[in-house]
């Protein structure tokens, strides 16, 4: 069994220069008249997951954040870069090595209904997870423990139900319990609350936070909702068009964002305190436009076609991570902050 007594802050999983390019299908290649076109879904992503901490990966649809989670779960082979589990480079492709990896790194998907088989009971789903990962010695006690951990109590009320007999929030709790059946060290939660009613999202986030603390889990929280990242995550990383553009502790990134794209995300979040009459029409115009094609991403900074602060060099030079102010660990990949102090 994986120890929950490992020191909090211990590095579990790292992405180093992680890159994923999907080959474009032949028909699209003909349209674009190029033989070697690829979708640049993820380029040069670096992140570290530590015991007892949540890292939020924030961005709009198509930014590549879910691809990062699937790469870390080894559901996709990577094009370049490295994935390190406790410092050891790891590449698994199925079979026993994949099961051993999945026992330590589990994924929670966005849609709990799709991730549970409708013809099987909750007992079946949890038993299967426990057996696959060799944790079914005392099956009844283990089933009760899993459901109790996710606050589905009394467990007897849920064990023999089918997924359609549960609410969305209860189904997501079952999906989390199933992931815990592997006794993992890291959870990769891909938009775990975005398909749930607003009224029950907070309960599921609180559950994940509680599990993080009690089981000393490392959690990657994928979301398009930067406000929930502030509430839930220790660190926040922002992705745009397949690249990381800003990172730091969640309070700093959400309260004093540096990158123009992060500012746009925060300004786009619903804010009941902001009256329409207060909105400057020029401000309202910021960030107009669509996310770029990832088959032919913009040169230089990928945000430059939408950026209200773009400078000539932005369309030619790829920004590097630059330290922001004196806040340790706060960086942005933006030429507005160019100085000799380049973040390592
Ligand atoms: Fe805008 Fe240039 Fe910064 Fe990119 S590098 S976000 S285009 S100012």
From TrEMBL:
<dbReference type="GO" id="GO:0015833">
    <property type="term" value="P:peptide transport"/>
</dbReference>
<dbReference type="InterPro" id="IPR050319">
    <property type="entry name" value="ABC_transp_ATP-bind"/>
</dbReference>
<dbReference type="InterPro" id="IPR027417">
    <property type="entry name" value="P-loop_NTPase"/>
</dbReference>
<keyword id="KW-0067">ATP-binding</keyword>
<dbReference type="Pfam" id="PF08352">
    <property type="entry name" value="oligo_HPY"/>
</dbReference>
<dbReference type="Pfam" id="PF00005">
    <property type="entry name" value="ABC_tran"/>
</dbReference>
<dbReference type="GO" id="GO:0055085">
    <property type="term" value="P:transmembrane transport"/>
</dbReference>
<keyword id="KW-0547">Nucleotide-binding</keyword>
<dbReference type="GO" id="GO:0016887">
    <property type="term" value="F:ATP hydrolysis activity"/>
</dbReference>
<keyword id="KW-0813">Transport</keyword>
<protein>
    <submittedName>
        <fullName>Peptide/nickel transport system ATP-binding protein</fullName>
    </submittedName>
</protein>
<dbReference type="InterPro" id="IPR003593">
    <property type="entry name" value="AAA+_ATPase"/>
</dbReference>
<dbReference type="InterPro" id="IPR013563">
    <property type="entry name" value="Oligopep_ABC_C"/>
</dbReference>
<dbReference type="InterPro" id="IPR003439">
    <property type="entry name" value="ABC_transporter-like_ATP-bd"/>
</dbReference>
<feature type="domain" description="ABC transporter">
    <location>
        <begin position="26"/>
        <end position="266"/>
    </location>
</feature>
<dbReference type="InterPro" id="IPR017871">
    <property type="entry name" value="ABC_transporter-like_CS"/>
</dbReference>
<dbReference type="GO" id="GO:0005524">
    <property type="term" value="F:ATP binding"/>
</dbReference>
């Amino acid at each position: 069994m994986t120890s929950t007594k490992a020191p909090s802050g211990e590095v579990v999983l790292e992405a180093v220069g992680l890159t994923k390019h999907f080959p474009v299908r032949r028909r699209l290649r003909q349209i674009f008249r190029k033989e070697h076109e690829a979708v640049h879904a993820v380029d040069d992503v670096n992140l570290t997951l530590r015991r007892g901490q949540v890292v939020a990966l924030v961005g709009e649809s198509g930014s590549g954040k879910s691809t990062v989670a699937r790469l870390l779960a080894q559901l996709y082979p990577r094009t370049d870069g490295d994935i390190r589990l406790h410092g050891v480079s790891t590449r698994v492709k199925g079979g026993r090595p994949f099961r051993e990896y999945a026992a330590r790194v589990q994924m929670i998907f966005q849609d709990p209904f799709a991730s549970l088989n409708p013809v099987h009971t909750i007992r079946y789903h949890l038993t299967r997870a426990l057996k696959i990962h060799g944790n079914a010695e005392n099956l009844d006690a283990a089933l009760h423990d899993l459901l109790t951990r996710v606050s589905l109590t009394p467990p007897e009320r849920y064990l023999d139900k089918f997924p359609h007999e549960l609410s969305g929030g209860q189904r997501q709790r079952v999906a989390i319990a199933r992931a815990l059946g592997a006794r993992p060290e890291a959870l990769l939660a891909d938009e775990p609350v975005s398909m749930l009613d607003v009224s029950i999202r907070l309960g599921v986030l609180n559950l994940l936070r509680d599990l993080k603390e009690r089981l000393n889990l490392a959690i990657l929280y994928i979301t398009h909702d930067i406000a929930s990242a502030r509430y839930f995550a220790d660190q926040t990383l922002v992705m745009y068009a397949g690249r990381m553009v800003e990172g730091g502790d969640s309070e700093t990134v959400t309260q004093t964002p540096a990158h123009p794209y992060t500012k746009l995300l925060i300004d786009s979040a619903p804010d009941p305190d902001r009256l329409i009459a207060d909105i400057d029409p020029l401000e309202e115009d910021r960030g107009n436009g669509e996310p770029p094609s990832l088959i032919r991403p913009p040169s230089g900074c990928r945000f430059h076609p939408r950026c209200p602060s773009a400078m000539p060099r932005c369309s030619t030079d790829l920004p590097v991570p630059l330290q922001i102010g004196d806040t340790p660990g706060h960086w942005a990949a933006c030429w507005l902050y160019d100085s000799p102090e380049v973040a390592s």
